[in-house]
C-alpha cells in the first residue's frame, strides 16, 4: 500500500517521510508525495 496515493497523503499528514513500494509504482508514489506535501504546506499556511 506504500504506493497508493491515499496512503501517501495519510503518511504525509502524520509526518512520515519514507514509504516503500514496488518499482512500478515509484512514479505514481513520487507524484502523490509531492501533491500531498504541497497540500499539507497550503493547509499549514492557511492556519
UniProtKB/TrEMBL annotation:
Function: Catalyzes the reversible phosphorylation of pyruvate and phosphate.
GO molecular function, one term: pyruvate, phosphate dikinase activity
Domain of life: Bacteria
Residues that span the membrane, as ranges: none
Every PEP-utilising enzyme C-terminal domain range: 1-36
Name this protein carries in UniProt: Pyruvate, phosphate dikinase
SUPFAM superfamilies assigned: Phosphoenolpyruvate/pyruvate domain
Taxonomic lineage: Bacteria, Pseudomonadati, Pseudomonadota, Alphaproteobacteria, Acetobacterales
UniProt keyword annotations, A-Z: Kinase, Pyruvate, Transferase
Organism of derivation: Novacetimonas hansenii ATCC 23769
Matches recorded under Gene3D superfamilies: Phosphoenolpyruvate-binding domains
Amino acid at each position: 500500500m506504500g504506493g497508493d496515493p491515499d496512503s501517501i497523503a495519510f503518511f504525509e499528514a502524520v509526518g512520515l517521510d519514507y514509504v516503500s513500494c514496488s518499482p512500478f509504482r515509484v512514479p505514481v508514489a513520487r507524484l502523490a508525495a509531492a501533491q500531498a506535501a504541497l497540500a499539507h504546506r497550503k493547509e499549514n499556511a492557511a492556519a
